[in-house]
Every structure is written in structure tokens, then in C-alpha cells.
Design goal:
Radius of gyration: 19 Å
Order of helices and strands: EHEHEHEHHEHEHHEEEHEHH
CATH superfamily of one domain: Divalent-metal-dependent TIM barrel enzymes
Distance between the termini: 17 Å
Strand content: 15-25%
CATH architecture of one domain: Alpha-Beta Barrel
Largest sheet: 8 strands, parallel, barrel
Oligomer: single chain
């Protein structure tokens, strides 16, 4: 595989070593191990250039001291990696609270955003972070939101707006990850509605994960917004591409951050997630998307022109098994797909 373009930078997500792991599952994979697997991947001389981080133990403590962050910076720089986007631990189980909760919960949500922005600034000062966003979501389930859709969406929007003002004070942007398990964010239309209500298009936007957003076309948790017919024939790639492009077109103007991923079109409940998509390995025969083609729905505009909107793109392999993640070939295959996406939609 030849490499045609230099930009955007290629990052790997570190949180697959944590998400879905724990006492009821497999043990977490240490950050050092995730970094080593990332830096060892190589395709035709191309390597990952950075990582996106989850600001939660056992990887990176949201209450990290300056010395802790210096150690983290040294870990990255010694591997020729940089930090990009940072996931704020806004959920109740990680010290945060629901974005549509009471004053105490909202206060915890906003505190986690502020702490994440402080870490982002310190990593910039340490010279290992030059771009990226702070990732958030509503940190509440769809059932709780559905008790009062209009009222609860307004509360989430108010919380996101206040969080946006906090982020702006640090020169940061927030990207809300749309996923079918998050209340008020469970469909493409609901995400647009929420972001319009927040009303800070330069500060609070969207994070598009290919796997999660594909489920929007199927109407999970929001059947009125489905774009694919019932009993869809997955061999019909043309119809899938058209539905996916329609969904992405609505969200692309809001999108600050982009994850390359694959999905098999099914859902499961795991941990705090009511329903969430199954991220597949890049070469999984059950993967429903053409990764290179469907990345173009986010990386090109309505006229097919490259948007150059993202300084980096990231692979998200959330909820892969430890057996899969500890195989070096897994990351070589993923990097190969990332290079193919950049060849098709990137730039020099």
C-alpha cells in the first residue's frame, strides 16, 4: 500500500483498554501496553502519530498532579506520539453526573469538564498536545430522557452550553458523541436538535464515530428517524451509502472530531450502556460498512470536495476482547485501514 497523503494525522484510541472491562468482564489493559501496541504498528513505513486519551483511572487520573502529567507526557514523547482528543469522565460512575440531572449532578458534570480542560492545557504546555477536542455526552439513558423529551433536551442543552463556556475559557472545543444509548442523542435528528438548542457552533459540536452513527440509519432507540427500511438487505451497498450520507450530511456541519470504525449492525447492552453498537475488527466479514467509502461521508462535503476539517482522525475499537487487542496484527490491520482512508480523503 502506497501512502499518498500526510494529513490528517492518524491516532489510536486508548479507552478500548478500559471500556467494557472490569470486575464483570476482562481486566483492563494498561495504558503502557496500549501505547506499546500502538507504536509497534506499521504499514509501509507509516505509523500512528498520536493517541486519544480517556481521563479516568486506571489510565489517566482526572485528578492528575503536575508530576503525573509530566510522566504521561514523557511516555508519549518517548514513543514519538502526541495526545489529541481527551474524553471527559462525565458519567456518574467516574465522578460526573447526568447532564439533565439535579444541580448536584450537573455540577459534577461541569466539574469534570473543567478538570479535563485543565489537563488539556497542561498537556499543551508540556508540548505533547497541539490539537484535539474534549469529548462529552449527556451521561443519561434514553428511558430517563423519554419521560419529558422537550424538557430534558432543554436541560441537557443548558448544561452543554455552560460546559461550552467553560471550555472556551481554556481555548478548547467540546464534541458531543452521538450514540443510541445516550438520552437526547440517540438519533441523527435529535443530535442536530440538541446542538442547535445549545447554540455555540464554534465551541460545542459533534463527535462522529462511524460505528455508532451507522446505527442512526437503522433507527435503534428512535425508529421515527430511521433511514434504512425494515429487514434491510445488507448486500445493497448503494442504499446503505445513500442513507449513511444523508445522516452524515445533517451532522457534518457540527462535527469537530471523527472516529474511523466498523460495525456489524447489531446492538448489545454492556456496562452503563443501555444499547450500544458492536465495533468490529476492520476485516470482520460481518462488518456492514465500506470503511473508505463511508469515511468520505464525513471527510468530504456535499460536492465531494475534501473538507480538511480534522487535524487528526482516530480509530475506535471499543469493546474488542483482550485476546483481540493484545495481538499486534490487530493494530497493523487497523493502521492499514486508516492509511487507506487518508489516501482517499486526506491531503498533503
Amino acid at each position: 500500500m502506497s501512502t499518498l497523503n500526510k494529513y490528517p494525522a492518524l491516532h489510536n484510541a486508548m479507552w478500548p483498554g478500559l471500556v467494557g472491562k472490569g470486575p464483570d468482564s476482562e481486566p483492563p489493559i494498561e495504558l503502557d501496553t496500549m501505547l506499546d501496541l500502538t507504536v509497534a504498528a506499521e504499514v509501509d513505513g507509516v505509523k500512528f502519530e498520536g493517541v486519544d486519551l480517556f481521563l479516568s483511572l486506571p489510565h489517566t487520573d482526572i485528578d492528575s498532579s503536575d508530576d503525573d502529567l509530566k510522566v504521561l507526557a514523557d511516555k508519549l514523547s518517548s514513543r514519538n506520539l502526541v495526545a489529541g482528543s481527551l474524553v471527559a469522565p462525565v458519567w456518574g460512575g467516574t465522578g460526573g453526573g447526568s447532564a439533565m440531572g439535579d444541580a448536584d449532578e450537573v455540577g459534577k458534570f461541569l466539574t469534570q469538564v473543567r478538570k479535563s480542560c485543565e489537563i488539556a492545557k497542561k498537556l499543551k504546555d508540556l508540548g505533547v498536545r497541539k490539537y484535539g477536542v474534549i469529548r462529552i455526552d449527556s451521561a443519561t439513558g434514553v428511558d430517563a430522557w423519554a419521560a419529558d423529551p422537550a424538557g430534558n433536551t432543554k436541560i441537557i442543552a443548558d448544561t452543554f452550553r455552560e460546559a461550552g463556556h467553560i471550555a472556551a475559557g481554556y481555548g478548547e472545543r467540546l464534541a458531543a458523541e452521538g450514540e443510541i444509548c445516550w438520552g437526547g442523542m440517540q438519533s441523527w435528528r435529535r443530535n442536530v436538535e440538541l446542538l442547535e438548542m445549545v447554540g455555540l457552533p464554534k465551541t460545542v459540536g459533534f463527535q462522529a464515530d462511524m460505528a455508532h452513527t451507522m446505527l442512526f440509519t437503522m433507527g435503534f432507540n428512535c425508529p421515527e428517524d430511521r433511514l434504512l427500511p425494515d429487514n434491510f438487505d445488507w448486500s445493497d451497498g448503494e442504499t446503505l451509502a445513500a442513507a449513511y450520507k444523508k445522516m452524515a450530511s445533517a451532522l457534518r456541519p457540527w462535527t469537530f472530531d471523527f472516529h474511523v470504525a466498523q460495525n456489524d449492525g447489531t446492538v448489545k447492552g454492556q456496562g452503563s450502556h443501555d444499547k450500544t453498537g458492536r465495533h468490529c475488527q476492520v476485516n470482520d466479514p460481518n462488518g456492514r460498512m465500506d470503511i473508505v467509502r463511508d469515511s468520505g461521508a464525513w471527510l468530504r462535503d456535499e460536492n465531494g470536495e475534501k473538507t480538511r476539517a480534522f487535524q487528526h482522525i482516530c480509530w475506535d475499537g471499543c469493546m474488542f476482547s483482550n485476546e483481540v487487542m493484545l495481538k499486534q496484527q490487530t493494530w497493523n490491520d487497523i493502521l492499514g485501514a486508516m492509511v487507506a482512508v487518508r489516501n482517499a480523503h486526506g491531503w498533503e
